[in-house]
Amino acid sequence: MIWDPRDIPDQSGRTVVVTGPTVGGLGYHTALELARNGARVVLAGRNKEKRKQAAAAISEELPAAQVETLPLDLARMESVRHAASAARDLGPIHLLVNNAGVMGTPLRRTVDGLELQMQTNHFAPFLLTGLLLPQLVESGEGRVVTVSSLFHRYAGHQPVDDPREAEGRYHPWRVYGRSKLANLHFTSELERRLSARGLPVKALAAHPGFAGTHLAVNGQYGVAGSGADLGSAQARRLDRMIGLVSQSAAAGARPTLMAATADLDGDTFVGPTNFLQMQGPPKVVGRSRLARDRSAGQRLWEISEGVVGMSYP
Ligand SMILES: NC(=O)c1ccc[n+]([C@@H]2O[C@H](COP(=O)([O-])OP(=O)(O)OC[C@H]3O[C@@H](n4cnc5c(N)ncnc54)[C@H](OP(=O)(O)O)[C@@H]3O)[C@@H](O)[C@H]2O)c1
């Protein structure tokens, strides 16, 4: 049976937190569809104007929607901790969607001394999820969905280097691949730990195939000091070209929505059906050999706890 957004069950009474909700991206469409089905949605993003714009766009389409915003900059661990303390007022959280991410950025270290892609895509969501876990547990039926990528197959090797140490040669796409492989290890290991402790939270992952968002342009032109800007002709050309050859952002959000709401086991990975999983309706998909290596997942977990200075239960 083909999954469709009309299969999303009633979300009334549920609180969902979606990171990276900028209009035009996958997070926005994820939040929009969850709000359409009655969820209270919390839009967690780093830019105040963009958060407001996303909230206004959802409210315009769905005047009865319950929409809130939460400041969150994953490139600063201090901001992640602030966001988690502010989120305590939300009460029980039924769903956390770790969607925000960057791709293929030039070599940058964050204020925390970590490479930008690994921090934004893996280490900061690792910390955020751990800090929100008590509220996910409190909901009695929590779920964590982390947005990975087909690029996890392009990692080259396991993401188990010490991220505080400088890499040899920096290869932005391999590092992106490793951050997305880290998303799958995180999901598998989190699911194992949750079920071993009998906690009422599931961890799943999704990937959107290839979707026409601003991810590529943001990665190439949106990073301070990268020598170009988002409004440049080059950036606009790249954005247009991606729009032409990819599926829509709304379609790209469907695997996330299926992972978030369908009756699936923990550690399920959902991606598009057609054309080498680049597009089409979502289904349960497989993952690379590296992603199935449990010992690497455990090693990454230990490294991550050390890096963020937090232990999960
Ligand atoms: N589009 C695809 O084909 C594709 C394929 C595979 C996987 N993915 C994954 O899908 C997810 C969503 O990407 P997208 O395609 O929707 O790209 P996007 O349009 O660029 O959206 C990315 C979102 O992440 C946010 N973000 C980036 N850095 C952040 C930080 N430091 N703190 C908080 N938020 C931050 C962005 O905020 P700003 O707007 O403020 O920059 C934006 O809201 C990513 O995890 C990406 O790896 C996408």
Q: Pairing-aware structural class of the strands and helices?
A: alpha/beta
Strand proportion, as a percent range, falls in 5-15%
| Annotated CATH topology of the largest domain | Rossmann fold
For the sheet with most strands, the description reads:
8 strands, mixed
User: In DSSP terms, counting alpha (H) and pi (I) runs of 4 or more, how many helices?
Assistant: 10
Write structural notes for this entry.
The chain folds into two domains: 9-211 and 249-307, NAD(P)-binding Rossmann-like Domain (Rossmann fold), CATH 3.40.50; 213-245, no CATH class. Helix 6 (215-221) runs antiparallel to helix 7 (233-245). It has 313 residues and is an alpha/beta fold. Helix 2 (48-61) links the parallel strand 2 (40-45) and strand 3 (66-71). It is built from ten helices and eight strands. NADP nicotinamide-adenine-dinucleotide phosphate (NAP) binds next to helix 1 and helix 6.
Keywords:
binds NADP nicotinamide-adenine-dinucleotide phosphate; alpha/beta; 2 domains; 8-stranded mixed sheet; 10 helices; 313 residues; Rossmann fold; 14% strand; 42% helix
Strands, helices and their partners?
Elements lengths: L14 E5 L6 H11 L3 E6 L2 H14 L4 E6 L5 H11 L7 E4 L17 H23 L3 E6 L24 H25 L4 E6 L8 H7 L11 H13 L3 H4 L1 H8 L7 E6 L4 E6 L9 H15 L5
Parallel strand pairs: 1-2, 1-4, 2-3, 4-5, 5-6, 6-7
Antiparallel strand pairs: 7-8
Helix pairs in contact: 3-4, 4-5, 4-10, 5-10, 6-7
The structure holds NADP nicotinamide-adenine-dinucleotide phosphate.
NADP nicotinamide-adenine-dinucleotide phosphate (NAP) binds next to α1 and α6.
